[in-house]
Specification:
single chain, 294 residues, mainly alpha
Length: 294
């Protein structure tokens, strides 16, 4: 073998090693970013996947003092609106729930506007629930016909329904990406462990956990200092200006006052931070074991 051939072999090996290192780094970055997204999504799932957080927070914070409805009726409305917005977008089910609380208020002799026949408005004068449930156009036409501002305390007006629909659309668009991120995070972490061992996987876990923890700490500080500013900035990312603001005594705001959203944010924060702590602990253990084994 000539001296020139012997000189080329170390250079070739060095090139392959550099290529492998680059691939490992890219896999680790992708896995870390996907894991960070999954950690954030974990808090959202805790808030949205079950009715319990909505029921609990509505029971604690719904504004019955400025609403014609009782606390219990507002809780029913809040859970129905959550199911409509997050789960199924079933307008007939939402209207039925809204009709139930309005009939309860009317039966109790409370000050509901004269002539406000919610069964006819929400479901249809025919009383045929199957026909009403299947006729989307009729349901849309049946949206309160009382959309002027004075009726906001009594009903989810067309503007309110439109905002709930906007939220549902955003969630449906984001959901596949969140699922994809979780799958990529899982596969990516396995690939990192297989190619780089415990130390590399530990770095990914601690990096993602620490990064999300830091971002959420900053967001929590922002919320504590200026909740309204944070709330407005968050909504402006997804919704057109003017489509998500309602009067303080509207049914939607009485169901979901600012304190409700602070509580929901606290649940999101707690679950995501707990997930970050788990990643940090596991990542630290993996790195320590790799160091002892070296």
């Amino acid at each position: 073998m000539s001296s020139s051939s012997r000189a080329l072999r170390p250079q070739a090996n060095g090139g392959l090693q550099a290529q492998r290192s680059l691939i490992d780094a890219l896999i680790a970055i992708v896995a870390g970013v996907a894991l960070a997204i999954t950690l954030v999504a974990a808090g959202f799932v805790a808030c949205a996947a079950f009715d319990t957080p909505t029921r609990m927070l509505s029971q604690a914070f719904s504004n019955d003092a400025d609403s014609p409805y009782t606390k219990e009726e507002l809780v029913v409305a809040a859970v129905a609106a959550k199911q409509y917005t997050i789960d199924d977008n079933d307008r007939y089910a939402l209207y039925t729930a809204m009709d139930a609380i309005a009939q309860s208020a009317q039966a109790d002799g409370r000050d509901i506007p004269e002539g406000l026949n919610l069964y006819d408005v929400y479901i249809g004068a025919s009383g045929d629930s199957q026909a009403a449930g299947s006729a989307e156009e009729d349901l849309i036409m049946a949206q309160y016909e009382l959309s002027y501002a004075d009726e906001e305390p009594y009903a989810l007006t067309p503007d309110a329904i439109s905002h709930l629909d906007d939220v549902y659309d955003v969630i449906q668009q984001v959901k596949p990406w969140l699922c994809a991120a979780a799958v990529i995070a899982y596969i990516g972490c396995i690939a990192v462990a297989f190619r780089g061992g415990r130390r590399s996987l530990g770095r990914v876990l601690t990096g993602a956990g620490a990064g999300v923890f830091a971002v959420f700490a900053l967001l929590a500080a922002w919320v504590a200092i200026d909740f309204n500013g944070f709330f407005a900035a968050f909504h402006s990312l997804f919704f057109a200006a003017g489509t998500w603001t309602f009067s303080w005594d509207s049914l939607l705001i009485c169901m979901y006052p600012p304190e409700f959203w602070v509580g929901m944010g606290a649940i999101w924060l707690a679950v995501t931070v707990a997930s970050c702590v788990v990643c940090l602990i596991i990542g630290k253990l993996l790195k320590n074991r790799a160091a002892r084994a070296a």
